[in-house]
Amino acid sequence: MYNKFYRVRGRDQSITVATPGPPCMAHCISAARRVVYTAIMPELPEVETIARGLHQRLAGQRITDVWIGNKTNLLKSPARQIARVLTGARIVAFRRVGKHIVCDLDSAAGPAQWIIHLGMTGRCAVCEPGHPLAAHTHLVATLASHREMRFVDPRRFGKLQVVTGHKFRAPGQEPTTVDEDTFVALFKGRNTPIKSALLNQSLLSGVGNIYADESLFRAGIRPRRKALRITRAELLALRHSVQQVLAEAIAAGGSSINDYVDANGDEGFFQLQHRVYQRTGEPCLVCRTPIARTVIAGRSSHYCPKCQK
Ligand SMILES: [Zn+2]
What is the 56 CA–ligand 1 centroid distance (Å)? Predict the structure, then answer.
C-alpha cells in the first residue's frame, strides 16, 4: 500500500540544489548527483518519524558544544540563549508535539526544551564527526560521543527555539489521540468548509493538506461542506479516518526511519498511496468517477464527486 518517492517533480514546489560535498542530509546532494527535490512541508507523520529517530539515537547523551550560523531569521530565541541552554545539557527525550520536534533537556539551569519546527525544508541529521558540513547548515550540536546533530534548512522557514520547563504545548488538539466528544466539539457552529477547519492548527495540531484530503475521502465527506452541517456520526467517521490515515503513514515512516535522520541514509519522504490527493482526473479507486479538484482557502482540495457527499 505504501510507496516512497524521491523528489517528485510537479508537486507544490521544486527546487534544484547542489552542494560540493557528499550527501549529508535529505536535501543536500553531491554535485555529481545534482537533482531536483520537492519542497513540500513535512507533515505530522514525517515529524513523528524524525522525532522517534532522533530519540533512538540521542536520548541520554550530553551536548558538549553548539555552533549556530548567522542566519538569524529562523531563530525564535536569541542565538546566545539557544547556545547557553543547549551547551552542557543532557538530552532526556525527543518527541513530537503537533508538528514540532521537542527535545526535553536537563540543563544546568533546570529543565528546558529545545523546540524545532522543520518549516518547509528543515531537516535534522545525526552525523559522525568529520562528516562534511552540508550547505544551509544552521546549527550543529556536538554530543559527548562526538557525533553531531545538525539542523539544515535551505529555505529557512524552519524555527529553532528554547524554552524553560517541560511545558511546551501545541495550539490545537493532538489528532492521533483526541477523543470523540472533544473532536466533535471542535467543529460545532463553525460556518467554514470542513477542509478549512481540519487545516486550522488551533483546532487540530498537525493535520496538513494531504492527510485532510485523504481523511475526508475515507469519511465520505466533501471538503467544501460547512463544518456546522456535518452530523455527529459523520464527524465520528472523520475522526476515525484522520486517525487511521495518520497511523498508517506513521507506520510506513517507521520502516524508513534511517532515511530521515542518518546522514548517509536514503533520501526522500515516504508517502501513503494517495486515494485522492493530486489524483485530479484519475479514476476514483472505489467508483471510477474522475477525481475532482477545487481550491478552498487557497489550498488544492481533491475529492470524489460520487463517494463524497
Ligand atoms: Zn468514488
Answer: 41
* Domain formed by 180-303, architecture: Orthogonal Bundle (1.10)
| Digit-coded pLDDT (tens) for 106-117 | 998 899 999 999
Question: CATH 1.10.8.50 region(s) of the chain?
Answer: 180-303
Handedness of CA 297, 303, 306, 309 (dihedral sign): negative
Candidate from 23-37, 219-233, 251-265 with smallest mean pLDDT: 23-37
Distance 217 CA to ligand 1 centre (A): 8
Is 167 in the active site?
Answer: no
Backbone angles phi, psi at 254, to 5 degrees: -60, -30
**Cα-to-centroid distance, 291 and ligand 1 (Å):** 8
Q: Which of 181-185, 272-276, 284-288 has the lowest mean pLDDT?
A: 272-276
What grid cell was written down for 175?
489528532
From 95, 226, 299, 306, the catalytic residue: 299
Q: What whole-number distance in Å separates Cα of residue 86 and Cα of residue 97?
A: 19
Residue type, 78: P
Q: In CATH, what number does 42-164 get?
A: 3.20.190.10
Contact 191, 228 (CB under 8 A): yes
**Residue 104 CA, ligand 1 centroid: distance in Å:** 45
Residue tagged active-site, from 99, 150, 159, 222: 99
In the chain, list all ranges with CATH 3.20.190.10.
42-164
Rounded to the nearest 5°, which phi and psi values hold at 15? -135, 145
State the catalytic residue, choosing from 43, 46, 48, 214. 43
Identify whether 282 is a catalytic site residue.
no
**Stronger pLDDT, 29 or 223, i.e. the higher one:** 223
Tell how far the Cα of 177 is from the centroid of ligand 1, in angstroms: 28
Note if 299 is an active site residue: yes
pLDDT in tens, 204-223: 998 989 899 999 999 999 99
**Annotated catalytic residue 99:** yes
Residue 265 pairs with which residues in a beta bridge? none
